[in-house]
Protein backbone atom coordinates (compact mmCIF):
# COMPACT_ATOMS: atom_id res chain seq x y z
CA UNK A 1 0.00 0.00 0.00
CA UNK A 2 1.36 3.39 -0.98
CA UNK A 3 1.76 6.04 1.72
CA UNK A 4 -0.60 9.05 1.50
CA UNK A 5 2.15 11.36 0.28
CA UNK A 6 2.96 9.13 -2.69
CA UNK A 7 -0.72 8.76 -3.56
CA UNK A 8 -1.14 12.54 -3.61
CA UNK A 9 1.98 13.10 -5.75
CA UNK A 10 1.05 10.33 -8.20
CA UNK A 11 -2.48 11.68 -8.54
CA UNK A 12 -1.19 15.21 -9.11
CA UNK A 13 1.30 14.04 -11.75
CA UNK A 14 -1.38 12.00 -13.55
CA UNK A 15 -3.79 14.94 -13.61
CA UNK A 16 -1.14 17.36 -14.91
CA UNK A 17 0.06 15.05 -17.70
CA UNK A 18 -3.50 14.06 -18.63
CA UNK A 19 -4.36 17.76 -18.96
CA UNK A 20 -1.30 18.38 -21.16
CA UNK A 21 -2.17 15.38 -23.33
CA UNK A 22 -5.74 16.65 -23.69
CA UNK A 23 -4.45 20.09 -24.69
CA UNK A 24 -2.15 18.56 -27.30
CA UNK A 25 -5.02 16.58 -28.80
CA UNK A 26 -7.17 19.71 -28.85
CA UNK A 27 -4.52 21.52 -30.93
CA UNK A 28 -4.62 18.62 -33.38
CA UNK A 29 -8.36 19.26 -33.93
CA UNK A 30 -9.39 16.02 -32.17
CA UNK A 31 -13.02 15.57 -31.24
CA UNK A 32 -14.28 15.93 -27.69
CA UNK A 33 -14.72 12.19 -27.25
CA UNK A 34 -11.22 11.52 -28.55
CA UNK A 35 -9.69 14.20 -26.30
CA UNK A 36 -11.38 12.82 -23.17
CA UNK A 37 -10.53 9.21 -24.05
CA UNK A 38 -6.87 9.97 -24.72
CA UNK A 39 -6.51 12.04 -21.55
CA UNK A 40 -8.15 9.30 -19.49
CA UNK A 41 -5.93 6.63 -20.99
CA UNK A 42 -2.82 8.69 -20.28
CA UNK A 43 -3.89 9.34 -16.66
CA UNK A 44 -4.54 5.65 -16.03
CA UNK A 45 -1.41 4.45 -17.80
CA UNK A 46 1.01 6.68 -15.90
CA UNK A 47 0.72 5.04 -12.40
CA UNK A 48 1.32 1.61 -13.96
CA UNK A 49 4.92 2.61 -14.74
CA UNK A 50 5.87 1.68 -11.14
CA UNK A 51 4.67 -1.90 -11.68
CA UNK A 52 5.29 -2.44 -15.42
CA UNK A 53 7.97 0.13 -16.32
CA UNK A 54 9.12 -1.49 -19.58
CA UNK A 55 5.59 -2.17 -20.84
CA UNK A 56 4.42 1.38 -20.08
CA UNK A 57 7.44 2.82 -21.91
CA UNK A 58 6.79 0.79 -25.07
CA UNK A 59 3.04 1.52 -24.98
CA UNK A 60 3.69 5.26 -24.58
CA UNK A 61 6.11 5.24 -27.52
CA UNK A 62 3.71 3.27 -29.73
CA UNK A 63 0.69 5.41 -28.76
CA UNK A 64 2.55 8.64 -29.54
CA UNK A 65 2.22 7.88 -33.29
CA UNK A 66 -1.61 8.02 -33.58
CA UNK A 67 -2.02 10.25 -30.49
CA UNK A 68 0.69 12.91 -30.36
CA UNK A 69 -0.09 13.79 -26.74
CA UNK A 70 1.34 10.48 -25.53
CA UNK A 71 4.79 11.78 -26.49
CA UNK A 72 4.68 13.76 -23.24
CA UNK A 73 4.55 10.48 -21.30
CA UNK A 74 7.66 9.04 -22.95
CA UNK A 75 10.30 10.96 -20.88
CA UNK A 76 8.47 10.18 -17.61
CA UNK A 77 8.12 6.50 -18.51
CA UNK A 78 11.78 6.41 -19.58
CA UNK A 79 12.93 7.86 -16.23
CA UNK A 80 10.82 5.35 -14.33
CA UNK A 81 12.05 2.48 -16.52
CA UNK A 82 15.67 3.40 -15.88
CA UNK A 83 15.01 3.22 -12.13
CA UNK A 84 12.90 0.08 -11.99
CA UNK A 85 13.87 -2.31 -14.81
CA UNK A 86 16.04 -5.01 -13.22
CA UNK A 87 19.13 -6.33 -14.95
CA UNK A 88 21.46 -4.58 -17.39
CA UNK A 89 20.54 -6.88 -20.28
CA UNK A 90 16.81 -6.47 -19.82
CA UNK A 91 17.10 -2.70 -19.48
CA UNK A 92 19.32 -2.46 -22.58
CA UNK A 93 16.91 -4.54 -24.65
CA UNK A 94 13.87 -2.54 -23.50
CA UNK A 95 15.43 0.84 -24.22
CA UNK A 96 16.87 -0.32 -27.55
CA UNK A 97 13.42 -1.51 -28.63
CA UNK A 98 11.83 1.74 -27.44
CA UNK A 99 14.42 3.80 -29.32
CA UNK A 100 14.04 1.84 -32.57
CA UNK A 101 10.25 2.04 -32.33
CA UNK A 102 10.26 5.77 -31.58
CA UNK A 103 12.84 6.51 -34.27
CA UNK A 104 10.95 4.48 -36.86
CA UNK A 105 7.59 6.11 -36.10
CA UNK A 106 9.06 9.63 -36.13
CA UNK A 107 10.89 8.94 -39.38
CA UNK A 108 7.74 7.59 -41.01
CA UNK A 109 6.01 10.91 -40.37
CA UNK A 110 8.73 12.72 -42.35
CA UNK A 111 8.35 10.57 -45.45
CA UNK A 112 8.96 11.25 -48.27
CA UNK A 113 11.06 14.25 -47.19
CA UNK A 114 13.93 12.16 -45.83
CA UNK A 115 17.46 13.53 -46.01
CA UNK A 116 20.62 13.15 -43.91
CA UNK A 117 19.73 16.29 -41.99
CA UNK A 118 16.27 14.94 -41.19
CA UNK A 119 17.80 11.66 -39.99
CA UNK A 120 20.17 13.52 -37.64
CA UNK A 121 17.40 15.68 -36.20
CA UNK A 122 15.03 12.73 -35.66
CA UNK A 123 17.80 10.66 -34.09
CA UNK A 124 18.77 13.43 -31.66
CA UNK A 125 15.18 14.18 -30.67
CA UNK A 126 14.48 10.48 -30.09
CA UNK A 127 17.65 10.15 -28.04
CA UNK A 128 16.72 13.11 -25.84
CA UNK A 129 13.14 11.91 -25.30
CA UNK A 130 13.70 8.16 -24.88
CA UNK A 131 17.25 7.29 -23.81
CA UNK A 132 18.61 10.22 -21.79
CA UNK A 133 15.84 10.20 -19.11
CA UNK A 134 16.31 6.45 -18.70
CA UNK A 135 20.06 6.81 -18.21
CA UNK A 136 19.53 9.62 -15.72
CA UNK A 137 16.95 7.58 -13.80
CA UNK A 138 19.17 4.51 -13.70
CA UNK A 139 22.18 6.52 -12.52
CA UNK A 140 20.10 8.18 -9.77
CA UNK A 141 18.66 4.83 -8.62
CA UNK A 142 22.04 3.07 -8.49
CA UNK A 143 23.65 6.01 -6.74
CA UNK A 144 20.95 5.93 -4.08
CA UNK A 145 21.37 2.16 -3.69
CA UNK A 146 25.11 2.53 -3.20
CA UNK A 147 24.64 5.33 -0.68
CA UNK A 148 22.14 3.22 1.29
CA UNK A 149 24.61 0.32 1.30
CA UNK A 150 27.41 2.58 2.50
CA UNK A 151 25.18 3.96 5.26
CA UNK A 152 24.30 0.45 6.41
CA UNK A 153 27.96 -0.57 6.35
CA UNK A 154 28.93 2.54 8.30
CA UNK A 155 26.23 1.81 10.90
CA UNK A 156 27.55 -1.75 11.21
CA UNK A 157 31.09 -0.45 11.72
CA UNK A 158 29.88 1.93 14.42
CA UNK A 159 28.05 -0.91 16.18
CA UNK A 160 31.14 -3.11 16.02
CA UNK A 161 33.33 -0.29 17.31
CA UNK A 162 30.93 0.25 20.24
CA UNK A 163 30.98 -3.47 21.02
CA UNK A 164 34.77 -3.62 20.85
CA UNK A 165 35.02 -0.57 23.10
CA UNK A 166 32.60 -2.19 25.55
CA UNK A 167 34.63 -5.39 25.52
CA UNK A 168 37.81 -3.39 26.16
CA UNK A 169 36.12 -1.62 29.08
CA UNK A 170 35.01 -4.96 30.51
CA UNK A 171 38.52 -6.38 30.29
CA UNK A 172 39.93 -3.28 31.94
CA UNK A 173 37.36 -3.56 34.70
CA UNK A 174 38.35 -7.16 35.24
CA UNK A 175 42.01 -6.18 35.44
CA UNK A 176 41.24 -3.45 37.99
CA UNK A 177 39.09 -5.87 39.98
CA UNK A 178 41.90 -8.40 40.04
CA UNK A 179 44.41 -5.79 41.21
CA UNK A 180 42.07 -4.66 43.97
CA UNK A 181 41.44 -8.27 44.97
CA UNK A 182 45.14 -9.10 45.14
CA UNK A 183 46.38 -5.95 46.90
CA UNK A 184 43.64 -4.32 48.97
CA UNK A 185 41.99 -7.60 49.95
CA UNK A 186 45.26 -8.92 51.32
CA UNK A 187 46.06 -5.75 53.25
CA UNK A 188 42.57 -5.46 54.74
CA UNK A 189 42.68 -9.10 55.78
CA UNK A 190 45.97 -8.48 57.60
CA UNK A 191 44.49 -5.42 59.33
CA UNK A 192 41.50 -7.47 60.48
CA UNK A 193 43.70 -10.25 61.79
CA UNK A 194 46.04 -7.97 63.70
CA UNK A 195 43.31 -5.75 65.14
CA UNK A 196 41.36 -8.85 66.17
CA UNK A 197 44.41 -10.24 67.94
CA UNK A 198 45.13 -6.86 69.54
CA UNK A 199 41.55 -6.58 70.78
CA UNK A 200 41.95 -9.62 73.05
CA UNK A 201 45.24 -8.36 74.50
CA UNK A 202 44.80 -8.18 78.28
CA UNK A 203 47.20 -5.26 78.65
CA UNK A 204 44.81 -2.87 76.78
CA UNK A 205 42.54 -0.58 78.73
CA UNK A 206 38.82 -0.56 78.05
CA UNK A 207 39.05 2.60 75.97
CA UNK A 208 41.88 1.22 73.86
CA UNK A 209 40.05 -2.11 73.38
CA UNK A 210 36.97 -0.18 72.22
CA UNK A 211 39.06 1.82 69.71
CA UNK A 212 40.66 -1.37 68.39
CA UNK A 213 37.17 -2.88 68.00
CA UNK A 214 36.12 0.08 65.93
CA UNK A 215 39.16 -0.42 63.71
CA UNK A 216 38.39 -4.14 63.32
CA UNK A 217 34.75 -3.46 62.40
CA UNK A 218 35.85 -0.79 59.95
CA UNK A 219 38.26 -3.20 58.28
CA UNK A 220 35.58 -5.92 58.06
CA UNK A 221 33.14 -3.40 56.55
CA UNK A 222 35.81 -2.28 54.09
CA UNK A 223 36.35 -5.89 53.02
CA UNK A 224 32.61 -6.30 52.41
CA UNK A 225 32.51 -3.16 50.30
CA UNK A 226 35.62 -4.24 48.44
CA UNK A 227 33.90 -7.52 47.56
CA UNK A 228 30.88 -5.64 46.26
CA UNK A 229 33.00 -3.35 44.11
CA UNK A 230 35.06 -6.25 42.78
CA UNK A 231 31.88 -8.15 41.95
CA UNK A 232 30.47 -5.18 40.08
CA UNK A 233 33.69 -4.62 38.19
CA UNK A 234 33.80 -8.27 37.17
CA UNK A 235 30.27 -9.08 36.06
CA UNK A 236 27.82 -6.88 37.95
CA UNK A 237 27.22 -9.23 40.91
CA UNK A 238 28.78 -9.29 44.39
CA UNK A 239 31.65 -11.66 44.86
CA UNK A 240 31.70 -14.19 47.73
CA UNK A 241 34.24 -13.88 50.46
CA UNK A 242 37.22 -14.87 48.37
CA UNK A 243 38.60 -11.38 48.46
CA UNK A 244 38.91 -11.34 52.22
CA UNK A 245 40.40 -14.76 52.87
CA UNK A 246 43.29 -14.16 55.23
CA UNK A 247 46.64 -15.75 54.52
CA UNK A 248 46.43 -17.86 57.71
CA UNK A 249 43.28 -19.61 56.50
CA UNK A 250 44.61 -20.04 52.99
CA UNK A 251 47.71 -21.77 54.31
CA UNK A 252 45.74 -24.20 56.49
CA UNK A 253 47.03 -22.76 59.81
CA UNK A 254 44.82 -22.91 62.91
CA UNK A 255 42.23 -20.16 63.00
CA UNK A 256 42.90 -17.68 65.81
CA UNK A 257 40.02 -16.35 67.96
CA UNK A 258 40.22 -12.92 66.37
CA UNK A 259 39.87 -14.45 62.90
CA UNK A 260 36.88 -16.51 64.06
CA UNK A 261 35.27 -13.32 65.33
CA UNK A 262 36.01 -11.70 61.99
CA UNK A 263 34.31 -14.62 60.23
CA UNK A 264 31.24 -14.18 62.37
CA UNK A 265 31.14 -10.51 61.43
CA UNK A 266 31.54 -11.53 57.81
CA UNK A 267 28.55 -13.85 58.10
CA UNK A 268 26.54 -10.98 59.54
CA UNK A 269 27.38 -8.51 56.81
CA UNK A 270 25.81 -5.11 57.54
CA UNK A 271 23.04 -3.85 55.29
CA UNK A 272 23.99 -1.32 52.63
CA UNK A 273 20.49 0.20 52.57
CA UNK A 274 18.70 2.66 54.86
CA UNK A 275 18.87 0.13 57.70
CA UNK A 276 22.66 0.27 57.61
CA UNK A 277 22.73 4.01 58.37
CA UNK A 278 22.13 3.31 62.06
CA UNK A 279 25.23 1.09 62.13
CA UNK A 280 27.25 3.95 60.59
CA UNK A 281 26.00 6.23 63.36
CA UNK A 282 26.98 3.72 66.04
CA UNK A 283 30.47 3.36 64.57
CA UNK A 284 30.96 7.14 64.58
CA UNK A 285 29.68 7.43 68.15
CA UNK A 286 32.05 4.71 69.30
CA UNK A 287 34.88 6.77 67.78
CA UNK A 288 33.95 9.65 70.11
CA UNK A 289 31.92 11.81 67.71
CA UNK A 290 28.56 13.24 68.73
CA UNK A 291 26.14 12.00 66.08
CA UNK A 292 22.36 12.44 66.24
CA UNK A 293 20.01 10.39 64.03
CA UNK A 294 16.53 11.77 63.39
CA UNK A 295 13.61 10.18 61.54
CA UNK A 296 10.37 11.80 60.47
CA UNK A 297 7.43 10.79 58.33
CA UNK A 298 5.91 7.42 57.59
CA UNK A 299 8.58 4.86 56.78
CA UNK A 300 8.24 3.57 53.23
CA UNK A 301 10.31 0.97 51.35
CA UNK A 302 12.76 2.08 48.68
CA UNK A 303 14.08 0.33 45.65
CA UNK A 304 17.39 -1.46 46.38
CA UNK A 305 19.33 1.02 44.26
CA UNK A 306 17.75 4.01 46.03
CA UNK A 307 18.37 2.45 49.44
CA UNK A 308 22.01 1.87 48.58
CA UNK A 309 22.29 5.47 47.39
CA UNK A 310 20.84 6.68 50.73
CA UNK A 311 23.43 4.60 52.60
CA UNK A 312 26.25 6.05 50.49
CA UNK A 313 25.06 9.62 51.06
CA UNK A 314 25.06 9.13 54.81
CA UNK A 315 28.44 7.39 54.67
CA UNK A 316 30.00 10.15 52.54
CA UNK A 317 28.56 12.87 54.80
CA UNK A 318 30.02 11.23 57.90
CA UNK A 319 33.37 10.67 56.21
CA UNK A 320 33.61 14.32 55.12
CA UNK A 321 32.63 15.51 58.58
CA UNK A 322 35.31 13.33 60.21
CA UNK A 323 37.91 14.58 57.73
CA UNK A 324 37.19 18.28 57.55
CA UNK A 325 35.37 19.04 60.81
CA UNK A 326 36.88 16.75 63.48
CA UNK A 327 35.13 17.14 66.80
CA UNK A 328 32.08 18.89 65.35
CA UNK A 329 28.62 17.57 66.11
CA UNK A 330 26.85 15.73 63.29
CA UNK A 331 23.14 15.39 62.59
CA UNK A 332 21.71 12.80 60.21
CA UNK A 333 18.07 13.25 59.29
CA UNK A 334 15.86 10.82 57.35
CA UNK A 335 12.66 12.55 56.19
CA UNK A 336 10.09 10.38 54.46
CA UNK A 337 8.28 12.82 52.21
CA UNK A 338 5.15 11.86 50.18
CA UNK A 339 7.14 11.16 47.03
CA UNK A 340 10.76 10.75 48.11
CA UNK A 341 13.20 10.17 50.93
CA UNK A 342 15.41 13.08 51.97
CA UNK A 343 18.75 12.06 53.50
CA UNK A 344 20.51 14.99 55.14
CA UNK A 345 23.90 15.02 56.88
CA UNK A 346 24.89 18.30 58.53
CA UNK A 347 27.81 19.10 60.80
CA UNK A 348 28.43 22.14 62.92
CA UNK A 349 31.44 24.44 62.73
CA UNK A 350 34.89 23.10 63.54
CA UNK A 351 35.68 23.50 67.27
CA UNK A 352 38.54 25.83 68.12
CA UNK A 353 40.24 23.05 70.04
CA UNK A 354 40.41 20.82 66.95
CA UNK A 355 43.79 20.09 65.39
CA UNK A 356 43.71 21.99 62.04
CA UNK A 357 47.19 20.94 61.11
CA UNK A 358 46.38 17.29 60.46
CA UNK A 359 46.93 15.96 56.96
CA UNK A 360 43.67 15.04 55.23
CA UNK A 361 43.74 12.96 52.05
CA UNK A 362 40.85 13.66 49.72
CA UNK A 363 40.39 12.49 46.16
CA UNK A 364 37.66 14.99 45.41
CA UNK A 365 35.53 12.31 43.73
CA UNK A 366 33.07 11.43 46.51
CA UNK A 367 30.47 14.12 45.82
CA UNK A 368 30.74 13.61 42.07
CA UNK A 369 30.08 9.90 42.52
CA UNK A 370 27.11 10.62 44.78
CA UNK A 371 25.54 12.93 42.21
CA UNK A 372 25.89 10.28 39.53
CA UNK A 373 24.51 7.57 41.83
CA UNK A 374 21.49 9.75 42.70
CA UNK A 375 20.93 10.64 39.05
CA UNK A 376 20.80 6.99 38.06
CA UNK A 377 17.90 6.37 40.48
CA UNK A 378 16.07 9.55 39.48
CA UNK A 379 17.17 11.68 42.44
CA UNK A 380 19.51 14.57 43.14
CA UNK A 381 22.19 15.69 45.61
CA UNK A 382 22.73 19.14 47.11
CA UNK A 383 25.78 20.39 49.06
CA UNK A 384 26.46 23.71 50.72
CA UNK A 385 27.34 25.61 53.87
CA UNK A 386 24.96 26.08 56.80
CA UNK A 387 24.09 29.35 58.53
CA UNK A 388 26.28 28.57 61.55
CA UNK A 389 29.39 27.86 59.45
CA UNK A 390 28.99 24.14 59.13
CA UNK A 391 28.42 21.96 56.09
CA UNK A 392 25.33 20.20 54.76
CA UNK A 393 24.96 17.27 52.37
CA UNK A 394 21.44 16.28 51.31
CA UNK A 395 20.03 13.81 48.82
CA UNK A 396 16.50 13.45 47.46
CA UNK A 397 15.72 9.86 46.39
CA UNK A 398 12.35 8.77 44.91
CA UNK A 399 10.54 5.70 46.21
CA UNK A 400 9.81 4.32 42.77
CA UNK A 401 12.37 2.21 40.95
CA UNK A 402 14.16 3.70 37.89
CA UNK A 403 12.75 3.13 34.42
CA UNK A 404 13.41 -0.30 32.87
CA UNK A 405 16.73 -0.36 31.08
CA UNK A 406 18.20 2.45 33.21
CA UNK A 407 21.69 1.84 34.51
CA UNK A 408 22.32 1.21 38.18
CA UNK A 409 25.33 0.73 40.34
CA UNK A 410 23.59 -1.14 43.13
CA UNK A 411 25.42 -4.31 44.11
CA UNK A 412 22.13 -6.17 44.40
CA UNK A 413 20.95 -5.17 40.94
CA UNK A 414 21.50 -8.01 38.53
CA UNK A 415 21.50 -5.66 35.55
CA UNK A 416 24.03 -3.31 37.08
CA UNK A 417 26.68 -2.08 34.72
CA UNK A 418 29.03 0.85 34.39
CA UNK A 419 28.22 1.41 30.73
CA UNK A 420 24.98 2.47 29.06
CA UNK A 421 22.71 -0.36 27.88
CA UNK A 422 23.02 0.77 24.28
CA UNK A 423 26.76 0.47 24.50
CA UNK A 424 26.94 -2.72 26.51
CA UNK A 425 28.12 -5.44 24.15
CA UNK A 426 26.69 -8.15 26.44
CA UNK A 427 23.20 -7.08 25.40
CA UNK A 428 24.05 -7.44 21.74
CA UNK A 429 25.88 -10.76 21.84
CA UNK A 430 24.79 -14.18 23.03
CA UNK A 431 25.26 -14.95 26.72
CA UNK A 432 28.52 -16.60 27.51
CA UNK A 433 31.74 -16.17 29.37
CA UNK A 434 34.01 -13.32 28.47
CA UNK A 435 35.99 -14.02 25.36
CA UNK A 436 33.66 -16.83 24.25
CA UNK A 437 30.84 -14.76 22.78
CA UNK A 438 29.93 -14.74 19.12
CA UNK A 439 32.35 -12.90 16.85
CA UNK A 440 31.44 -9.36 15.88
CA UNK A 441 31.81 -10.18 12.19
CA UNK A 442 30.40 -13.00 10.12
CA UNK A 443 32.25 -16.18 9.44
CA UNK A 444 33.15 -15.06 5.96
CA UNK A 445 35.21 -12.23 7.45
CA UNK A 446 32.75 -9.47 6.49
CA UNK A 447 29.68 -7.97 8.16
CA UNK A 448 26.30 -8.54 6.57
CA UNK A 449 26.15 -5.10 4.93
CA UNK A 450 29.68 -5.45 3.55
CA UNK A 451 28.88 -8.89 2.19
CA UNK A 452 25.86 -7.40 0.48
CA UNK A 453 27.97 -4.61 -0.95
CA UNK A 454 30.52 -7.12 -2.22
CA UNK A 455 27.76 -9.18 -3.82
CA UNK A 456 26.74 -6.10 -5.83
CA UNK A 457 30.28 -5.39 -7.02
CA UNK A 458 29.37 -6.27 -10.59
CA UNK A 459 26.38 -4.00 -10.41
CA UNK A 460 28.61 -1.21 -9.14
CA UNK A 461 30.96 -1.77 -12.08
CA UNK A 462 27.96 -1.61 -14.40
CA UNK A 463 26.98 1.63 -12.72
CA UNK A 464 30.43 3.11 -13.36
CA UNK A 465 30.27 2.06 -17.00
CA UNK A 466 26.73 3.41 -17.26
CA UNK A 467 27.82 6.72 -15.78
CA UNK A 468 30.67 6.94 -18.28
CA UNK A 469 28.35 6.15 -21.16
CA UNK A 470 25.84 8.70 -19.87
CA UNK A 471 28.56 11.35 -19.66
CA UNK A 472 29.70 10.57 -23.20
CA UNK A 473 26.15 10.70 -24.49
CA UNK A 474 25.62 14.00 -22.71
CA UNK A 475 28.68 15.47 -24.42
CA UNK A 476 27.55 14.15 -27.79
CA UNK A 477 24.06 15.45 -27.13
CA UNK A 478 25.26 18.97 -26.36
CA UNK A 479 27.48 18.96 -29.45
CA UNK A 480 24.61 17.61 -31.55
CA UNK A 481 22.23 20.22 -30.23
CA UNK A 482 24.68 23.00 -31.07
CA UNK A 483 25.21 21.63 -34.56
CA UNK A 484 21.49 21.09 -34.98
CA UNK A 485 20.70 24.60 -33.82
CA UNK A 486 23.18 26.08 -36.29
CA UNK A 487 21.85 23.86 -39.07
CA UNK A 488 18.24 24.72 -38.24
CA UNK A 489 19.00 28.43 -38.26
CA UNK A 490 20.61 28.11 -41.68
CA UNK A 491 17.66 26.14 -43.04
CA UNK A 492 15.18 28.64 -41.68
CA UNK A 493 17.01 31.47 -43.35
CA UNK A 494 16.82 29.59 -46.67
CA UNK A 495 13.18 28.55 -46.43
CA UNK A 496 11.16 31.13 -44.43
CA UNK A 497 10.00 34.70 -44.93
CA UNK A 498 7.87 37.11 -42.97
CA UNK A 499 4.36 38.08 -44.19
CA UNK A 500 5.62 41.67 -44.55
CA UNK A 501 8.26 40.49 -47.00
CA UNK A 502 5.57 38.66 -48.94
CA UNK A 503 3.43 41.80 -49.09
CA UNK A 504 6.38 43.93 -50.26
CA UNK A 505 6.80 41.83 -53.43
CA UNK A 506 4.64 43.07 -56.35
CA UNK A 507 3.58 41.10 -59.40
CA UNK A 508 5.26 42.18 -62.67
CA UNK A 509 8.69 42.77 -61.23
CA UNK A 510 11.65 41.07 -62.84
CA UNK A 511 12.50 37.57 -61.67
CA UNK A 512 16.10 38.58 -60.93
CA UNK A 513 15.05 41.42 -58.58
CA UNK A 514 12.51 39.27 -56.79
CA UNK A 515 14.90 36.34 -56.27
CA UNK A 516 17.52 38.70 -54.84
CA UNK A 517 14.95 39.90 -52.35
CA UNK A 518 13.82 36.38 -51.36
CA UNK A 519 15.66 33.28 -50.01
CA UNK A 520 16.67 30.74 -52.63
CA UNK A 521 14.41 28.04 -51.10
CA UNK A 522 17.06 25.32 -51.41
CA UNK A 523 16.35 23.85 -47.97
CA UNK A 524 14.89 20.60 -46.73
CA UNK A 525 12.06 22.49 -45.06
CA UNK A 526 10.64 23.48 -48.44
CA UNK A 527 10.31 19.86 -49.53
CA UNK A 528 6.67 18.79 -49.84
CA UNK A 529 5.21 22.31 -49.83
CA UNK A 530 3.49 21.56 -53.14
CA UNK A 531 1.30 18.89 -51.45
CA UNK A 532 -2.25 20.19 -51.72
CA UNK A 533 -1.09 23.48 -53.27
CA UNK A 534 -3.13 25.34 -55.96
CA UNK A 535 -2.28 24.49 -59.62
CA UNK A 536 0.86 26.09 -61.04
CA UNK A 537 0.28 28.47 -64.00
CA UNK A 538 1.10 26.87 -67.34
CA UNK A 539 4.73 27.21 -68.30
CA UNK A 540 5.69 28.91 -65.00
CA UNK A 541 8.38 28.00 -62.48
CA UNK A 542 7.47 28.58 -58.83
CA UNK A 543 9.36 29.22 -55.60
CA UNK A 544 7.60 28.02 -52.42
CA UNK A 545 8.67 29.34 -49.01
CA UNK A 546 7.50 28.79 -45.46
CA UNK A 547 5.76 31.50 -43.53
CA UNK A 548 7.04 32.63 -40.12
CA UNK A 549 3.45 32.66 -38.84
CA UNK A 550 1.58 29.68 -37.44
CA UNK A 551 -1.12 27.96 -39.42
CA UNK A 552 -4.83 27.94 -38.66
CA UNK A 553 -4.47 24.53 -36.99
CA UNK A 554 -1.86 22.15 -35.63
CA UNK A 555 -1.68 20.16 -38.86
CA UNK A 556 -1.74 23.14 -41.27
CA UNK A 557 1.40 24.86 -42.53
CA UNK A 558 1.20 28.32 -44.21
CA UNK A 559 3.07 28.72 -47.54
CA UNK A 560 4.03 31.67 -49.76
CA UNK A 561 4.44 30.81 -53.47
CA UNK A 562 6.00 32.97 -56.19
CA UNK A 563 5.62 31.92 -59.87
CA UNK A 564 7.86 33.27 -62.65
CA UNK A 565 7.47 33.21 -66.45
CA UNK A 566 9.47 34.92 -69.19
CA UNK A 567 11.73 36.55 -66.57
CA UNK A 568 8.89 38.18 -64.62
CA UNK A 569 6.82 37.48 -61.52
CA UNK A 570 3.41 36.60 -62.87
CA UNK A 571 1.72 35.31 -59.68
CA UNK A 572 2.09 35.19 -55.91
CA UNK A 573 -0.18 33.14 -53.68
CA UNK A 574 -0.61 32.46 -49.93
CA UNK A 575 -2.16 29.15 -48.91
CA UNK A 576 -1.92 26.32 -46.36
CA UNK A 577 -0.82 22.74 -46.87
CA UNK A 578 -1.14 19.70 -44.64
CA UNK A 579 2.07 19.05 -42.75
TrEMBL record:
Keyword presence, Membrane: yes
SUPFAM superfamilies tied to this protein: ATPase domain of HSP90 chaperone/DNA topoisomerase II/histidine kinase
Region entry Disordered, spans: 237-256
One Pfam assignment: HisKA_3
Keywords: ATP-binding, Kinase, Membrane, Nucleotide-binding, Phosphoprotein, Transferase, Transmembrane, Transmembrane helix, Two-component regulatory system
Transmembrane segments: 51-76, 117-136, 462-488
Domain of life: Bacteria
GO CC terms of this entry: membrane
The protein's name: histidine kinase
Residues covered by the Signal transduction histidine kinase subgroup 3 dimerisation and phosphoacceptor domain: 172-236
E.C. number: 2.7.13.3
Native organism: Streptomyces sioyaensis
Organism taxonomic ancestry: Bacteria, Bacillati, Actinomycetota, Actinomycetes, Kitasatosporales
Class of enzymatic activity (EC top level): transferase
Catalytic reactions on record: ATP + protein L-histidine = ADP + protein N-phospho-L-histidine
Record-level Gene Ontology MF annotations: ATP binding; phosphorelay sensor kinase activity; protein dimerization activity
Amino acid sequence: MWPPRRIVLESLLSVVLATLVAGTEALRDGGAVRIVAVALAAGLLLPLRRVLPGTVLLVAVAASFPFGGFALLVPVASWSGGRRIDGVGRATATFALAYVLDFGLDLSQELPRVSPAVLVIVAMVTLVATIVPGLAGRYWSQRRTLLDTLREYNAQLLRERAMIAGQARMRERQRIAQDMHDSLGHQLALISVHTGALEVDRELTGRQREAVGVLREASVGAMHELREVVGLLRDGTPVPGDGATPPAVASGAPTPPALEAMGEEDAKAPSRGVAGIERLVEASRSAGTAVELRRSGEVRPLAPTAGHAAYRIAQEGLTNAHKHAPGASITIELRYEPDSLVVEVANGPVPETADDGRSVVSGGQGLTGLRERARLVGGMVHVGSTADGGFRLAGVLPYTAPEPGATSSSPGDETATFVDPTGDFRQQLATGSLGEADPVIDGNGSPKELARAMSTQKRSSGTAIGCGVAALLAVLLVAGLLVGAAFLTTELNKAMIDPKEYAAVTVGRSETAVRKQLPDGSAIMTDGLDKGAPPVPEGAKCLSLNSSELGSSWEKEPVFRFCFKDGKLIEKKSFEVTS
